[in-house]
Amino acid sequence: MFKKNLPNLLTISRALAVPAIILSFYIENKYANLITISIFIFACITDFFDGYLARAWKVQSKFGRLFDPIADKLIVVSTIMMLVYKHKINDYTIIPSVIIVCREILVSGLREFPIATNVSLPVSKAGKIKTFLQMLAVVALIMDDYEITQYIGTICLWVAAIITIWSGYNYVIAGIKQID
User: Fold this and answer.
1) How far apart are CA 165 and CA 96, in angstroms?
2) Quick one: DSSP state of residue 79?
3) In the chain, where do the E strands start and end?
4) Hey, which of 41, 45, 97, 158 has its CA 20 to 30 A from 56?
5) What are phi and psi of 123, to 5 degrees?
């Protein structure tokens, strides 16, 4: 029973981490970034382990296939929005942020039809790389205490946006084929 439910519990915990991350951006002390990063990294680790354990233990579920990408989007998009709010993403770094958020909304909408028709659109390697780069960018941008972390975060955000466009295009094509 434990093995069957743990991957889904990890996915749910990632979604539940969103309010904690948002609230952590309002902390006004020298540990604020560390608290935010700790919660965000915890969520990122659950992203790896929920899928890994589900496959290893052969307990993949419809819930996990549906909710895992939603939890990923919630954690990344809400944190990007808070980084914009805190002016850690501004000027030209807004562009890749908007690309990422728009793609996530588009892909979420495209998932509706295949789910309704019991068809699966699997996550691609490009999608996994995109998610990893988004998460890396977010961590680096939260750690804005050093110029190098801002630089790394900005580069990762732009690379993630480029992969986002490419993987989003492939996802749209696959989704359109399912609609026909």
Assistant:
1) 10
2) H
3) none
4) 41
5) -75, 135
